[in-house]
Design goal:
The protein has a domain of 116 residues: Alpha Horseshoe (Serine Threonine Protein Phosphatase 5, Tetratricopeptide repeat). It is mainly alpha-helical. It is found in: Cytoplasm; Golgi apparatus membrane; Membrane.
Length: 548
């Protein structure tokens, strides 16, 4: 035995002996031989091979008193720990390794007894208190052993809520350096996501976000410079964002959900510009869902209107936090999304609140968005939002639609102006107001004015290819409103545009991919109109006067 080291024992000796014991199928012999292994070989060997030994116990004859074998093993390991303490202060990594063996034993034999696991964690914490260093290097032997120890409850329970019942788990995790805590935080978050563990109460949210704080806020001991790149940060924060959607109270307790969201914002609000664009939007959309929950139970809760208003104020505060970070495009999108969410939950001040969201978006657009592509993208959102909002009075909707049309005509690039003016026509045709009681506005005159402006802007483009493309798009738009019965859109408008494209623009285009693309688009458009002229429908306007 003196010539056998731990590695040799682990690799050859124990597997061979256990194979013989398991295959003999004699209960008395098996029990005796297992106890011999426990008593004969050194403690260090048992610590390194505990998993192998326990797996063999599960394969023994059914009449073997396995508990007797396990008691003998525990007593042997306990005696080892006692001797180590009496001999002075043993190496801390050895102590943690012993705790790993004990916690593994607890999980395999007594999975339901949390107090045993917590006792092991407590013993480990007491051992670590002897260290002079505040933080343990995660790359050191001790750090790696501690991470192994902490991973075991996470991976064995597969329920992060069980970790909250282990009061010493968080304290042990706090002993690690930044990289170690971050590793554990990622493991905890990933485990919750993979097992879809819902966090049901405010206190649970506080504890979980406390465990993963290395992901959500800057840490005092995190490296300065040379940290993770933007892609890695985005991946980590997207994980946190997904986790937020697991913060769900019981269906019959929406008040608890509001407390959960408020608490989550307090934890995440200090995340800074690298984190908040990822973690704030989920809170806002969960707020929208909560407002819908209150709306559904409005007959049961007389305070539902005030609660909905409070929720949208919360959402406004969340979006404003992004504005303070000097972001613009994301807050604009969220302000408009909030306005749409309010329109689906009609309460006393819903119109005022929706108007505030839209006006804030316009203000942010004018003050912060300078890039022409970003402006055009934002205007498509404004037009789409104002078309779908249904809780505005005529008094409030008119200035907002007019503002959107004005901004469309003020875009820097002529093609963007033209296309934006085409988009805003839908606000004046399909949108509705309170006075209309859900019926579409059908402001044909305003639609016609926007289209005439768009034609004028398109005609000012110097590039014949771009001008032709825009006019073809306008032909299709005029055709749409003609089919819709807009009395201010005449077949003569379509004829004029077709003539200009065919006679003035297409002949001037140089041969190439651009000309081929424009001609294909023009041909498809004209053929569609020709079909309408040649196949009149009784319920559609006549294209009889169309000139192709």
């Amino acid at each position: 035995l003196d010539s056998i080291d731990v590695e040799l024992y682990k690799r050859l000796v124990l597997p061979g002996v256990l194979e013989q014991i398991v295959s003999c199928r004699d209960a008395v012999a098996q029990e005796y031989l297992m106890e011999c292994i426990i008593q004969v070989f050194p403690d260090e060997c048992h610590l390194e091979t505990l998993n192998t030994f326990l797996k063999a116990c599960a394969e023994l004859h059914s009449e073997v008193r396995v508990h007797t074998v396990l008691i003998a093993l525990v007593e042997r390991l306990a005696a080892y720990g006692q001797r180590q303490r009496q001999a002075g202060n043993p190496p801390i990594p050895d102590v943690v390794a012993l705790q790993i063996s004990l916690i593994n034993l607890a999980f395999r034999c007594y999975p339901d007894q949390l107090e045993l696991v917590n006792k092991v964690l407590e013993s480990s914490l007491e051992a670590l208190h002897r260290l002079k260093s505040d933080k343990i290097d995660s790359n050191s032997i001790l750090g790696k052993e501690l991470i192994r120890l902490l991973k075991m409850p996470v991976c064995n329970y597969n329920d992060v809520l069980m970790l909250l019942k282990l009061p010493h788990f968080a304290s042990l995790m706090a002993k690690l350096d930044f990289n170690g805590r971050k590793t554990m935080a990622i493991l905890v978050a990933t485990n919750a996501l993979e097992n879809e563990t819902c966090i049901r109460s405010q206190s649970q949210v506080d504890d979980i976000l406390g465990l993963i704080s290395a992901l959500t806020v800057d840490q005092e001991d995190q490296p300065i410079g040379g940290g993770p790149d933007a892609e890695e940060i985005a991946e980590e924060q997207n994980m946190v964002a997904r986790l937020i959607h697991l913060f769900q109270s019981e269906e019959n307790d929406p008040d608890q959900q509001y407390r959960i969201l408020t608490s989550a914002r307090k934890h995440l609000g200090s995340g800074g510009i690298r984190r908040l664009p990822h973690t704030i939007p989920p809170l806002i959309f969960e707020g929208f869902q909560l407002a819908n929950r209150y709306y559904k139970i409005r007959e049961e809760d007389e305070m539902w209107e005030k609660k909905c208003e409070k929720i949208f104020i919360y959402c406004h505060q969340c979006i404003s936090a992004l504005v303070k970070l000097e972001l613009a495009e994301l807050p604009v999108r969220l302000f408009l999304q909030a306005a749409l969410a309010v329109s689906h939950v009609t309460f006393a001040n819903s119109e005022t609140m929706a108007y505030e969201f839209v006006s804030q978006a316009f203000t942010l657009y004018e003050e912060e968005i300078a890039d022409s592509k970003a402006q055009y993208s934002a205007l498509t959102l404004f037009a789409g939002t104002l078309e779908k909002l249904n809780n505005f009075s005529q008094e409030n909707s008119t200035p907002l639609r007019s503002k959107c049309a004005l901004l469309a005509s003020a875009l820097l690039r002529k093609p963007d102006q033209c296309r934006a003016l085409i988009l805003v026509t839908h606000m004046f045709w399909s949108s509705t107001t309170k006075e209309l009681e859900g019926k579409p506005m059908r402001d044909g005159k305003k639609v016609s004015e926007c289209l005439r402006k768009a034609v004028k802007v398109a005609s000012e483009c110097i590039d014949f290819g771009v001008q032709a493309q825009l006019l073809i798009e306008l032909i299709n738009c005029y055709s749409f409103y003609f089919d819709q019965g807009n009395e201010f859109v005449k077949i003569t408008h379509i004829n004029e545009l077709i003539a200009k494209v065919k006679q003035e623009l297409l002949p001037q285009l140089e041969a190439g991919d651009e000309k081929d693309s424009v001609e294909r688009h023009a041909t498809a458009t004209i053929e569609r109109l020709r079909f309408k002229r040649d196949n009149p429908q009784t319920d559609s306007p006549s294209y009889q006067d169309l000139i192709i």
